[in-house]
Design brief:
Elements lengths: L1 H20 L22 E3 L5 E3 L7 E7 L4 H17 L3 E8 L3 H11 L5 E4 L3 H5 L7 E5 L5 E6 L4 H12 L3
Parallel strand pairs: 3-4, 4-5
Antiparallel strand pairs: 1-2, 3-6, 6-7
C-alpha cells in the first residue's frame, strides 16, 4: 500500500514538473523577446564619461542596444564583434552598450583595454534590465528610427548574426 502511495506521488510530481517547464502556446514569452514591438524605454542614464543621456535621443537612428557587464564571459567575447560592427556600419547603425550595475572605473578600464569605440552608458540601478525583461547577459535590441524594438537576442551573438540582423533593421524589416 505504501509503495503505491509513494509511486502515485512520484508520478504526480513528474507531471507537475513537466507542466511547469513545458512551454505552452498560451504562455507569454519570457526574456527580451517580450520587448519586440515595444518602444525603447525613455530612461536617462549616465554615460561612461559622466554626462546624462536620454535614450529618447537615439530616435531618428537605427540602433543596436547591447546590455552587458564586464564580469560576463559571453559579453566579453561579444564585445570585439560589436566594435567591428560599429565601425563597419557607421553611420547607418548606431551601436551603444549599457553596462548593468558596475563601477564606472571598472567599466572604463574594460573599455580602454578592449578598444571599445562606441558609446557606453551605465545603468547602476539596472532599470533597463527590468524594463526590457532580461533573463541574462548579454542581451541585444535592434531598435528602428522611431524607437520601436524590432528584434531582440538573449545571449551572445557572433559578428555574422549581428550584421545580418542590423542589415535587416536598416532595410526596414
Amino acid at each position: 500500500m505504501i509503495r503505491w502511495l509513494i509511486g502515485g506521488l512520484v508520478v504526480v510530481a513528474v507531471i507537475v514538473l513537466i507542466a511547469a517547464l513545458y512551454p505552452s502556446a498560451n504562455a507569454p514569452d519570457r526574456g527580451p523577446a517580450q520587448a519586440v514591438g515595444a518602444r525603447l524605454p525613455a530612461l536617462t542614464l549616465p554615460s561612461l564619461h559622466g554626462a546624462h543621456v536620454d535614450l529618447d535621443r537615439l530616435r531618428g537612428d537605427d540602433v543596436l542596444v547591447n546590455v552587458w557587464a564586464t564580469w560576463c564571459g559571453p559579453c566579453r567575447r561579444e564585445m570585439p564583434a560589436l566594435a567591428r560592427l560599429s565601425q563597419a556600419m557607421r553611420p547607418r547603425l548606431v551601436v551603444v552598450a549599457i553596462d548593468q550595475g558596475e563601477d564606472p572605473q571598472v567599466v572604463g578600464a574594460f573599455v580602454k583595454q578592449f578598444g571599445v569605440n562606441f558609446p557606453i552608458y551605465l545603468d547602476p540601478d539596472q532599470r533597463v534590465g527590468t524594463t526590457l525583461h532580461l533573463v541574462g547577459l548579454p542581451s541585444s535590441f535592434f531598435v528602428d528610427r522611431s524607437g520601436t524594438i524590432r528584434d531582440a537576442v538573449d545571449g551572445e551573438m557572433n559578428y555574422d548574426t549581428m550584421r545580418e540582423k542590423a542589415q535587416r533593421l536598416i532595410a526596414g524589416g
